[in-house]
C-alpha cells in the first residue's frame, strides 16, 4: 500500500474492482490523476501493487467473497473517508456453446459478473444512502443489450447487470445516489484469453483483428466523464463502441 499523498486537492474515495488490468487499471489511473484516493480490488495483489498509484489501498479480494468486500471497504473508509464512487468492473467472459461448455464456466460468470457486482453494491450503498450522495458505475457490455452467438451465459450475466442497474436506480435515486450502466463494445484487453473453446476464441480474435477496437482508456474516459457531471445529473447508460464495430 502506498499512502504517500501526491495531490494537494483531496477528492473522495473511489473503489475499483478488477483494477489490476484492462478497463479497471485504466480507470484507476484516470481517477488517481484526478486526485482520488483509491481502493483497488482484484485477486492478483501483485498486479494491483504494480500500478504504484499514490493514496491507493490494494486488497487481494475475490468479489464473490461478500465478507472480504465489506471488510476492504470498511478499512479503506477508515483511512480515506467515505466512498463516493464504486466502479463495479470485475468480470469474466467465457464464451462457448451452452450445450458444450462446462457448467462450471456458467457458474463462474454468474458468480463474478452478477453476484460479485451485487456484493460491491451492497458494500457501499448503505453509506451512500445515509449520506445522500454517491455513484455506482456498473460495467456491463453491448452484450447486455443484444445477443451474439456463443455469448449465451456471458450475455445473460450482462443483461442481468443492465436489469438490476435499472431497478437499483429506482430504489436509490430518491436518496440522491446515482447508478450508471457503462456498456462497452469490444475493448483491447485480456478478457478473451480465459475462454477455453479455442474455435470460438479464434473467431472472436479474428473479429477483433478486423476492427480498430476501443482501448481501455476510451472506456475509462467515458466512466470519468459520467462521474464528473454534477451529482444532480445521472448519465443513466453509456454505450460506447469502436466506430468500426458494426454489430
Ligand atoms: P480484464 O480481464 O483485463 O479485466 C477483468 C478484471 O476482473 C481482472 O483485473 C481480474 O483480476 C478481475 N476479476 C476477475 N474475476 C475476479 C474475481 N472473482 N474477483 C475479483 N476480481 C476479478 O478484462 P476487461 O478490462 O476487458 O474487463 C473489465 C470489465 O469490462 C468486465 O466486466 C467485462 O465483462 C467488461 N467488458 C469488457 C469488454 C471487452 O471487450 N474487453 C467489452 C464489454 C464489457 P484478477 O484476475 O486479478 O482477479
From TrEMBL:
Q: Which residues cross the membrane?
A: none
Q: Which GO terms describe its molecular function?
A: oxidoreductase activity, acting on the CH-OH group of donors, NAD or NADP as acceptor
Query: Cellular component terms, GO, for this chain's entry?
Result: membrane
Gene3D superfamilies, alphabetically?
NAD(P)-binding Rossmann-like Domain
State the Pfam families in the record.
adh_short (PF00106)
**CDD domains attached here?**
SDR_c
Keyword Cell cycle belongs to the record: no
The cross-references to InterPro entries, in alphabetical order and at most eight, read: NAD(P)-bd_dom_sf, Sc_DH/Rdtase_CS, SDR_fam
* The entry's keywords: Oxidoreductase
Any keyword Oxidoreductase? yes
What the record says about family reads: Belongs to the short-chain dehydrogenases/reductases (SDR) family.
Q: Which PANTHER family match?
A: DEHYDROGENASE/REDUCTASE SDR FAMILY MEMBER 7B, DEHYDROGENASE_REDUCTASE SDR FAMILY MEMBER 7B
Q: What is this protein called?
A: Oxidoreductase
Amino acid at each position: 500500500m502506498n499512502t504517500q499523498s501526491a495531490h494537494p486537492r483531496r477528492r473522495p474515495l473511489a473503489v475499483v474492482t478488477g483494477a489490476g488490468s484492462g478497463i479497471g487499471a485504466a480507470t484507476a489511473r484516470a481517477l488517481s490523476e484526478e486526485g482520488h484516493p483509491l481502493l483497488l480490488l482484484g485477486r492478483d495483489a501483485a498486479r494491483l501493487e504494480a500500478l504504484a498509484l499514490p493514496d491507493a489501498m490494494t486488497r487481494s479480494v475475490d468479489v464473490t467473497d461478500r465478507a472480504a468486500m465489506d471488510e476492504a471497504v470498511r478499512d479503506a473508509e477508515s483511512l480515506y473517508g467515505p466512498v463516493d464512487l464504486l466502479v463495479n468492473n470485475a468480470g469474466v467472459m467465457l464464451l462457448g456453446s451452452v450445450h458444450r461448455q462446462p457448467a462450471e464456466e456458467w457458474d463462474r460468470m454468474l458468480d463474478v459478473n452478477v453476484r460479485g457486482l451485487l456484493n460491491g453494491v451492497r458494500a457501499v450503498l448503505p453509506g451512500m444512502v445515509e449520506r445522500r450522495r454517491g455513484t455506482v458505475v456498473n460495467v456491463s457490455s453491448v452484450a447486455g443489450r443484444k445477443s451474439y452467438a456463443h455469448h449465451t451465459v456471458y450475455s445473460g450475466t450482462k443483461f442481468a447487470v443492465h436489469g438490476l442497474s435499472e431497478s437499483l436506480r429506482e430504489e436509490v435515486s430518491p436518496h440522491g445516489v446515482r447508478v450508471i450502466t457503462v456498456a462497452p463494445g469490444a475493448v483491447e484487453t485480456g478478457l478473451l484469453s480465459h475462454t477455453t473453446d479455442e474455435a470460438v476464441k479464434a473467431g472472436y480474435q479474428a473479429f477483433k483483428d478486423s476492427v480498430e477496437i476501443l482501448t481501455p482508456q476510451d472506456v475509462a474516459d467515458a466512466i470519468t466523464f459520467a462521474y464528473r457531471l454534477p451529482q444532480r445529473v445521472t448519465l443513466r447508460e453509456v454505450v460506447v463502441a469502436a466506430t468500426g464495430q458494426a454489430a
